[in-house]
């Protein structure tokens, strides 16, 4: 049988709305080095230097317009043809995209220039002579990396290779965990930066030496106003021992078993609900939930699990007595984020109700229970 040659194609807009590839919260892995692309707005450059996507600078928004793609960084600059970040989308920030099976993509300027890492610093720039597949990236949904803090405000950190202690006052790479959960399931796995999963072992200790799909690595999560409670496979709840070691010991959870949780690599959110994206519209003064494109929500952490929502213009989200929202408040309000899956969350609004999408298109916070309308993809 003759070999069939595979022909690259231009992806359709709907390709970026489903599956692994998403408009909001994507990251690019550079195939030759298995490193992530990071944007540095202080110098206006983009590098290929992150070993794991646990930095906020690894996240991008993809915008499709007139047959081309614009890559917006987490600080709202745009990748451009000129080796510098641009402040606004234009013809110089428009890239043609080719796709291959497995999420592989290549970006070009349409005139022969291909985007790939160059030089000893691996600067991401256009060039005309990539070698051995240097122009191919893996485009994936950005995973959620989180930090966990005990009631004493100490970070959970992997120490001595596998042991986990709540002893660090400062956030380090070993204090970050990838949040892995099937969407809609309360079962959670936490993968540490060493590549292994948290697992319950003998004497009720919890260490970071588990493997993917190993039964001892599955924990059930419970939420209490933005704080997470983890229940081990033996039914015990995770807490901190007097020597600061993480153990699964309590039969009934208390303050010692509640952990503050914070998104480590998401400085902003772009939320999509049942009827569309959360955003603003010139025709409405209230926040809408049926938009074609999202409005970025900047996350300003104030306490573990609690955030202030800030609009891109710098003002804060405000809430009315009817449970609707406006994006130009003067004062910061508290919102609780509760993760419901690897890329799903719920938001507990300042009025004590869950935020939900409504068929009318108006964003509301009036739900006492978590329904399908309360689930947001991020």
UniProtKB/TrEMBL annotation:
<keyword id="KW-0963">Cytoplasm</keyword>
<dbReference type="GO" id="GO:0051015">
    <property type="term" value="F:actin filament binding"/>
</dbReference>
<dbReference type="InterPro" id="IPR022768">
    <property type="entry name" value="Fascin-like_dom"/>
</dbReference>
<dbReference type="GO" id="GO:0005737">
    <property type="term" value="C:cytoplasm"/>
</dbReference>
<keyword id="KW-0009">Actin-binding</keyword>
<feature type="domain" description="Fascin-like">
    <location>
        <begin position="153"/>
        <end position="260"/>
    </location>
</feature>
<protein>
    <submittedName>
        <fullName>Fascin actin-bundling protein 3</fullName>
    </submittedName>
</protein>
<dbReference type="GO" id="GO:0030674">
    <property type="term" value="F:protein-macromolecule adaptor activity"/>
</dbReference>
<dbReference type="InterPro" id="IPR008999">
    <property type="entry name" value="Actin-crosslinking"/>
</dbReference>
<dbReference type="Pfam" id="PF06268">
    <property type="entry name" value="Fascin"/>
</dbReference>
């Amino acid at each position: 049988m003759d070999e069939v040659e595979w022909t690259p194609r231009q992806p359709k807009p709907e390709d970026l709305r489903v599956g692994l590839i998403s408009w909001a919260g994507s990251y690019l892995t550079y195939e030759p080095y298995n490193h992530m692309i990071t944007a540095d707005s202080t110098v206006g450059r983009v590098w290929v230097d992150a070993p794991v996507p646990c930095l906020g600078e690894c996240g991008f928004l993809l915008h499709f317009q007139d047959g081309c793609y614009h890559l917006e960084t987490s600080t709202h600059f745009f990748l451009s043809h000129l080796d510098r970040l641009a402040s606004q989308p234009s013809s110089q920030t428009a890239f043609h995209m080719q796709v291959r099976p497995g999420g592989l993509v290549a970006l070009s300027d349409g005139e022969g220039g291909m985007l790939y890492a160059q030089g000893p610093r691996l600067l991401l720039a256009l060039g005309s002579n990539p070698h051995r597949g240097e122009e191919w990236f893996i485009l994936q949904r950005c995973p959620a990396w989180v930090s966990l803090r005990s009631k004493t405000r100490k970070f959970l950190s992997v120490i001595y290779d596998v042991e986990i202690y709540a002893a660090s006052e400062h956030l380090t790479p070993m204090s970050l965990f990838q949040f892995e959960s099937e969407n809609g399931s309360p079962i959670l796995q936490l993968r540490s930066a060493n590549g292994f999963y948290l697992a319950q072992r003998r004497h009720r200790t919890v260490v970071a030496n588990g493997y993917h799909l190993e039964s001892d690595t599955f924990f059930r999560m419970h939420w209490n106003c933005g704080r997470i409670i983890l229940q081990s496979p033996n039914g015990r709840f995770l807490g901190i021992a007097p020597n600061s070691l993480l153990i699964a010991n309590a039969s009934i959870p208390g303050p010692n078993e509640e952990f503050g949780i914070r998104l480590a690599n998401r400085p902003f959110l772009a939320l999509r609900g049942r009827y569309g994206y959360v955003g603003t519209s010139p025709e409405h003064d209230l926040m809408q939930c049926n938009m074609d494109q999202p409005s970025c929500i900047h996350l300003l952490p104030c306490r573990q699990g609690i955030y202030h929502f800030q609009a891109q213009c710098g003002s804060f989200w405000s809430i009315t007595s009817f449970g609707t929202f406006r994006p130009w408040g003067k004062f910061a309000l508290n919102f609780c984020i509760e993760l419901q899956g690897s890329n799903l969350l719920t938001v507990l609004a300042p009025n004590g109700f869950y935020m939900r999408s409504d068929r009318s298109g108006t964003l509301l916070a009036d739900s006492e229970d978590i329904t399908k309308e309360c689930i947001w993809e991020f």
